[in-house]
Amino acid sequence: MPSYKLYYFQSRGTAELARLVFKQAGVDFEDIRYKGEEWPQHKSEMPLGAMPVLEVDGRKICQSLAIARYLAKEFGLFGSNNMEAFVIDELFEIFAEIMNNHLWKIFYEEDENKKAELAETFKKDSAAKYLNLIEKRLKENTSGSGFYVGSEVTVGDLLLYNSMYANRKWLGQFSVDVYEGRPLLEEHFKLVGVLPNIAKWVQERPETAF
Question: What is the pTM (predicted TM-score) of this model?
Answer without folding.
Answer: 0.96
